[in-house]
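tmp note - Broad substrate specificity ATP-binding cassette transporter ABCG2
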Amino acid sequence: MSVNEKAPIANHGQVPHYGSLGAGNGDDGAGPNSVGPEKEKSLTFHQVGYEVPTLCGRRTKVIISSCSGIMRPGLNALMGPTGSGKTTLLDVLADRKGRRGPSGDVLINGSRRPKNFKCVSGYVVQDDLIMGSLSVRENLAFSAALRLPSGTTWNQRKERVDRVIQELGLVSCAGTKVGNEFFRGVSGGERKRTSIGMELIIQPQVLFLDEPTTGLDAFTAVSVVKLLKRLSESRTIILSIHQPRYSIFSLFSSLTLLSRGSMVYHGPAQQVLPYFESLGFPCAEHENPADFILDVLTTCEKKSISNDTIVAMDTSLLGEEEREDGGGGGAVDMVERYRKSDMYQRTEQELGQVWQRLEERGQGGRLPAAGYASSILWQTMVVMHRSIVGLFRDPLSLYFQIIIMVIFALIIGIVYFDLGGKKVPLESINNIITDRIGAFFFMCMNQVFSNMSAVDLFIQRKALFIHENASGYYRVSVFFFSQVVTDLIAKRIAPVLLFSVITYFMLDLDREPEKFFIFLLTLFLVSISAAAITYAFSSIANVTPVATLLSALAFVLSMLFGGFFIALKSLPVWLRWLKYLSLFRYGLEALSINELRGREFYAEGFNSSSPCMSHTVSVVLRL
Ligand SMILES: Nc1ncnc2c1ncn2[C@@H]1O[C@H](COP(=O)(O)OP(=O)(O)OP(=O)(O)O)[C@@H](O)[C@H]1O
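out:
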């Protein structure tokens, strides 16, 4: 029994449910192009295109153009040679390409897609973006916690998770960690099924999958597509796929073929070979249909790119007409021929009727906007809980941060050990200030540069965040807040506390409790400010080296204008304002004033410069 059939959870009005998209599974002979009373129970797309600006920005590059069709409940495959636009079309249909770029209309059950369609549809990305340090069950529970309506009880959520685990055959590995690049977890097939399960939690009526068989061995790939076939009995599944073997191809209900961004076939998968044969491309008896189709399309594409390449091309794959006319036309011909086919005309006619009905309904043609299923507070709690669990499951970076901080504190403590109380030897009188300022400078430097470890904070999980945010798990602010708070408490604040205690007492700084807390607060603030700079670069950069270099540049400039290496008054006037941006300046000044203001130091000893050699002097230094 499918997940959908057993669903007992009431929809509490937060996530619109669009009802069944139709009972047919695409194998009932109706096919995607049939005209009939069920035609609106589907996803239809009308003249869909996608363009991106070129590098020079003045012109646009067309990635897909004028794609129209109908996807009914069943397994709808998008196929085509590499770079033909499968993923782009899938993303446009799933409303994942933003506002600029896509054109055309996508309708669900004959109505315009709701705003935030992402919240009510499922999308499984090619790379299986799931948290590796959590188990299969924990990942599914995370999805259930955020994507089921807020009125859902804890038991109902658990029940839904259990059912998905059973449905997808994940019972034996439910408690196993998914795994990541550092440690092995579940198998590739189990990981893919977990990704599918993350989306099935919300029982989407439309499920998109980008190349779900990539990276899987042949047997696992077949079992995953068989699973999808079973799930497609009650929902529309649209998947892009590159070159499936026959056992997978035979499971498809409908097939959409793309060539260089245009559709060259859209109809029942079983009719594609007769269609190609009618164009003069007969498939050999034992040839895999998918291989054959891609060979034909690739050959035609190559042919249209350059007539020179036809010399090296396997012309046996061309139709009779192409062989006779010496190879003109190519992919353009395939598009033109499809547009002249009965299949295309039938689809257009049916789409026309759907469109007409939409226009008759006037303004009521859009489905109610979908929203986030849970409140911002709940999202923050759930995402933060996952961050904390993830941190403690993989605590190496946390331990390392603490160990490095302790080592640095001990080094500073040893080098500047016992800077002395009130009384110092006369020959050290000059060192009272310089040693302290030197120690404070190194403390600030340590606090600032140790935050370089935060450059990965937003880069490491960027892909996961983009996917989850695009799928309507949580808001951007929720992710930002949860990541920052977890990182600050665990990796910034706790190590500073240790560092402060060790250095303060080893250096024997002023023992007044108030001064110790100001010292601690100053180091906290320096550390947090440096972390904030690193977070900013981590958010805007896509790769760690760029974020690291930008952070290092900011810190070095901050150090330069901190007043330690050069007196700020010696700087050129037009550069002096930079001191206001220097973390080091604020940190150094605060620590120095805290330690030195109002203190008195006594120096006593033998004065060698005195003409009277036995004279003893005492100096009182008041600051
Ligand atoms: N934002 C973009 N800017 C420039 N070119 C793009 C952009 N997005 C896609 N393309 C180009 O559009 C074409 C189609 O890309 P798409 O990823 O949709 O193809 P695909 O059929 O899924 O390919 P594959 O099978 O290799 O994954 C490719 O040539 C790609 O380089």
